Amino acid sequence: MRRILLAAAAALIGFVPAVRAEFPERPVTMIMPYAPGAADALMRAVGEHFQRATGQPLVLQTRDGASGVVGMRVVAGAAADGYTLGHTPVTAIAVQPHLLRNAGIGPASFEGVCGTNENVITVAVRADSPMRDLPGLVAEARRRPLSFGSPGPNSLPQLAIWKVQQATGIELNHIPYRGEPPHINDTLAGRLDFSAAIVSSAAELVMAGRMRLLAVFSANRHPDFPDVPTAREQGIDAQLFSQVGIYAPRGTPAPVLDRLESACQAALQDATVLRVLANSRSPVRFVGRAALTEWVRGEYENYGRILRELGVQPE
């Protein structure tokens, strides 16, 4: 009998599956859903740290279009194994699905991995503008019509200005552009009264003395421009937070997400990564995966309400 039991035990041992090797076992693809820019420089720096920490490279792949939707569709449709990720501002997940009838994605399509940095939104004017702060802009709008540019219709900078209008009752003429440089150039040329933009897009012109920032719409002042107060500090209840983050397909196993989250957090403490973020005037802001997933779902609901109030219909 003892021999039979030993033989049976040996047979069972043969059927025990091998322990899965630690993730990652091969290169990880990072989908970049916008045209190449500062985000690519950040992810290349993160990738260098990732390879040192895990032994596997982070391969960047640009899949831009439809304000980030094209690339994030690729992420949502990939195998939920952690080997395909996407790095994006909240726009592609929480705003664009309300604007495109067949976007095919939404917060439920993804698992948050980590928040990486913040795109701080601002109001920028020419250096010789008579408007010195946000209340000054509001007062000027009550005296005469003002026009402003943004990087696109229903972009986050435009929605930040919409919040100013809601808080103060002023009317403003919005002129949407394709991207940041054209409307900033028109503000410099005097064809627009101000630009609603990301701080990093106007930073060099501010440093050169050609533009001024009137306010930021974050919860805190921008570390590179500490003299520029937030909208709320100026008595105007208009806050709009633009967190940039890394996302995985829905259903990615928790141990894989934990490993990616840890790698992300460590990378955001790396000197090279911090230098890249500092050069792009984009404050580092790590957010854990659970908090990021919950936050983006709340933002989806918030933007749905805002866009309905604006009368925007999906196309």
UniProtKB/TrEMBL annotation:
<protein>
    <submittedName>
        <fullName>Tripartite-type tricarboxylate transporter, receptor component TctC</fullName>
    </submittedName>
</protein>
<comment type="similarity">
    <text>Belongs to the UPF0065 (bug) family.</text>
</comment>
<feature type="signal peptide">
    <location>
        <begin position="1"/>
        <end position="21"/>
    </location>
</feature>
<keyword id="KW-0732">Signal</keyword>
<dbReference type="Pfam" id="PF03401">
    <property type="entry name" value="TctC"/>
</dbReference>
<keyword id="KW-0675">Receptor</keyword>
<dbReference type="InterPro" id="IPR005064">
    <property type="entry name" value="BUG"/>
</dbReference>
<dbReference type="InterPro" id="IPR042100">
    <property type="entry name" value="Bug_dom1"/>
</dbReference>
